[in-house]
Design brief:
globular, Rossmann fold, 14 strands, alpha/beta
Length: 435
């Protein structure tokens, strides 16, 4: 049995599924203490600390001259990959840019009859940092991470966008990361990774000026560094292990459902992959398909571990119970593999992203369609959203009181101030009533 089975008849049975997902909370162990020391070291020694950590963990010959990637190296990275691959990356980038352009908010103001003007200024942050994991020593470059983090920042109008990624053992970055940066127009890239890269983005060093927002996925050390730096900088989110939840009816293809579950299970032994269906026979077929597909999957050990611990095949009496269960789970990725997915969209309350129908597997959104793949996990879709243009903007209130505003409302304002025992506030208003 690739993953356990459950029977859920109603909300009273949701507990074990929710507990299964909650149990994936990654134990930080001593990571927090280690990361605190790293942050303090980078804040104190700057580039010297970056060189020490990078030469110890990534590239033994690393020195300060290696930190910044030269423009010629970025161009060389683009030239080094096949033109067909560059075209695919460029098309994906165009799709992502078009989707996020629709998210852009504009400043606004509204005049009142008395001449008072109220409004809101929407402006980008001055600088954003994009963390790009190297992936297996730099040999599985996370191209999509760069695209999904950098492009929304560009659409927001952030004037300085910097990417960081750990070097390979020879001190270089994978050419596909450089190519993606070139295609996006990212000109500032640094060869540093892990918690020390996040620290450099937050505190700044001689080579890396500080940023205002840090976005991008990473391991427990990257995640912990971002968590500890909240308040010093803005971050995208604290992301946990990947997850997919599927609601399927009799029209679904079990081979496709199994493939979609495995698309997340292969990420991480802590990834969750759950298929919920009204059809017990379909779930049995999915189980058999999982077993077959696992056999020749290159990352089958990782996927099998994830399915065994955090996978589930869940039988429900009807689609309404299935929808209630999925909303209680608030999954990162939610596939509606049913005959009429549009009839259920209005019932979706909590999900990072929803994929509709039998022809829209999760990787369509992960890589190419345009919506962002940086999504809330671990049930946080109940209150948070995907990374977006808003991640890299801030809003400032605008207040322009008309000459008669204080005379009309000053006594009321002063009374509210005195109710809070803030006499100077009250006098600030009242002194204008005398003029």
């Amino acid at each position: 049995m690739p993953c356990p089975s459950f029977m859920v008849n109603g909300p009273e049975d949701f507990g074990p599924i929710r507990a299964l997902l909650d149990s994936r909370e990654e134990a930080a162990g001593d990571a927090a203490q280690k990361v605190e020391r790293i942050l303090a070291d980078v804040a104190k020694r700057g580039d010297e600390a970056l060189v020490d950590f990078t030469s110890r963990f990534d590239c033994s010959t690393f020195d300060a001259s290696c930190i910044r990637v030269a423009p010629a190296d970025i161009a060389a990275g683009l030239a080094a990959i096949p033109a067909s691959d560059a075209a695919i990356i460029a098309e994906a980038a165009d799709n992502i840019r078009a989707f996020h352009a629709a998210q852009k908010e504009r400043s606004w103001w509204q005049p009142a009859a008395d001449g008072t003007m109220l409004g809101q200024i929407v402006s980008p942050v001055d600088a954003a940092g994009c963390y790009v994991p190297g992936g297996r020593g730099g040999e599985t470059p996370l191209i999509s991470s760069l695209l999904m983090n950098a492009i929304p920042a560009q659409v927001a109008g952030v004037p300085r966008i910097v990417a960081v990624s750990p070097p390979r053992a020879d001190g270089t970055l994978n050419p596909y990361i450089l190519a993606a940066a070139a295609i996006c127009g990212i000109e500032e890239i640094h060869r540093v990774g892990s918690a020390w890269a996040v620290a450099a983005l937050a505190y700044g060093t001689a080579s890396i000026k500080p940023v205002d927002v840090i976005a991008g996925p990473g391991n427990i050390y990257v995640t912990t560094a971002k968590r500890l730096l909240i308040g010093k900088v803005g971050i995208d989110m604290i992301a946990g292990p990947s997850e997919i939840a599927i609601l399927a009816d009799a029209s679904a293809n079990p081979e496709g459902l199994a493939a979609d579950m495995l698309s997340q299970a292969e990420h991480d032994p802590m990834a969750a992959a759950i298929c919920v269906s009204t059809e017990a026979a379909l779930l049995q077929e999915v189980c058999e398909a999982l077993r077959r597909q696992l056999a020749d999957l290159p990352r089958n050990e990782i996927a099998a571990a994830a399915l065994g611990r955090f996978g589930a095949l869940v039988a429900v009496p009807d689609l309404d119970v299935g929808m209630a269960l999925l909303n209680a789970m608030a999954p990162e990725h939610f596939e509606l593999c049913v005959a009429d997915p549009w009839s259920l969209v209005g019932k979706v309350r909590h999900a990072g992203a929803v994929f509709l129908g039998h022809h829209c597997p999760e990787p369509v959104g992960d890589y190419f369609a345009g919506p962002n793949h940086v999504l809330p996990t671990m049930g946080t879709a109940r209150f948070s959203s995907a990374l977006s243009v808003a991640t890299f903007t801030k809003k400032t209130s605008l207040i322009a009181a008309a000459p008669g505003y204080v005379s009309a409302h000053g006594a009321k304002i002063a009374r509210l101030a005195r109710l809070e025992n803030l006499e100077a506030h009250a006098r600030s208003v009242e002194c204008r009533l005398k003029s």
